[in-house]
Write a structure and sequence with these properties.
317 residues; alpha+beta; Arc Repressor Mutant, subunit A; Alpha-Beta Plaits; 11 helices
């Protein structure tokens, strides 16, 4: 987890005084770009971590090499614990690490640092819902990513040439938690693929060394995945007219697939909505009935007419 990396980066800086992003990346088994972002996060949070340009440069913890936290000022300690605190409520190891860090602080700083760590809570349960635990596969797959070991998956999606779960040997590159749904980004014999953890029937970490592109950066790879999915999910669109007070409701319904284009002379808002197909656009708009007017395309208008005719046929007199 990132909180663990930030603690490790800080302790490495304290032990060595100065490190490069490449050295930190090798130590933590992450990409250089990820290591650089972690160092920038520490610096941005107010920890006295500064880049040193030029030959023999790197990142330096102000005050030189130290083996404890006694060199931090009160605001710096609060910033660090505020950065790490939310993870402590979810991961026992992070909570243990924070307790050890608190003991390493000078006595006057401890109360404020502990308060900063407790200032933010991450509650993963919706109102009236149950806690959302991390899938059991996250830990072994994360270890496979870090240790660079191939994983044999039995995946519940369609296998090539069949309809049931298929077995694959993959190179695990990283894990992504998107809105409580976990994904494994991995290399396969057909290139990069993304696997939902809740569709993995079995996962066996092997002793085979996994390959990972030297320039692979998980955040960038995931953004490409998101862009591809977004393109598929916005394959059809429609232009609608609606009263301005309806726009927040349309936003909740269509999310990022709503674009407001301007205002009409009669005060209504012109907007563009999108979904994966013409039928999907029409089905989402049907619930708004006469509160909105669909201007185009004719295909969506015709689909709405079919939906209306079906409803009348089933529920009309």
């Amino acid at each position: 987890m990132r909180a663990e990396r930030l603690v490790a980066a800080l302790l490495m800086l304290q032990a060595r005084g100065r490190v490069t992003a490449a050295e930190l990346a090798e130590e933590l088994e992450v990409s250089v770009a990820t290591a650089r972002r972690d160092l920038e996060a520490l610096s941005g949070a107010g920890i006295p971590v500064y880049p040193q340009p030029g030959r023999g440069g790197g990142w330096t913890l102000l005050g030189g090499a130290r083996t404890d936290l006694s060199g931090l000022t009160a605001p710096e300690a609060q910033a660090l614990f505020g950065l790490l605190g939310p993870s402590a409520g979810l991961v026992p190891e992070a909570r243990s690490a924070l307790r050890k860090l608190v003991r390493a602080l000078p006595d006057p700083f401890r109360p404020d640092a502990e308060a900063a760590a407790r200032a933010v809570v991450v509650d993963q349960a919706a109102w009236g819902g149950q806690d959302k635990d991390r899938p059991a596969l996250v830990e072994p797959l994360q270890a496979a990513v870090v240790r660079r070991r191939k994983v044999r998956l039995v995946y519940g999606g369609r296998s090539a040439g069949g309809s049931g779960p298929g077995e694959r040997l993959v190179d695990p590159w990283g894990l992504v938690d998107k809105d409580d749904t976990w994904y494994l980004v991995a290399g396969t014999d057909k290139g990069q693929r993304t696997f939902r953890l809740d569709r993995i029937v079995e996962a066996e970490v092997t002793d085979l060394a996994a390959d990972r592109p030297a320039d692979f950066e998980l955040a960038d790879a995931w953004q490409r995945v998101v862009a591809e999915v977004e393109q598929l999910r916005s394959g059809a669109s429609a232009t609608v007219l609606a009263a301005r007070w309806l726009v927040p409701g349309l936003q909740r319904s269509f999310g990022r697939y709503l674009e407001v284009d301007g205002e009409e002379p009669d005060g209504r808002v012109r907007a563009r909505v999108a979904a994966q197909s013409t039928t999907a656009v029409a089905e989402q708009l049907a619930g708004w009935a006469t509160m909105i007017e669909v201007v185009d395309p004719p295909e969506v208008v015709a689909a709405l007419a079919r939906i209306g005719a079906t409803l009348v046929d089933r529920y009309g007199p």
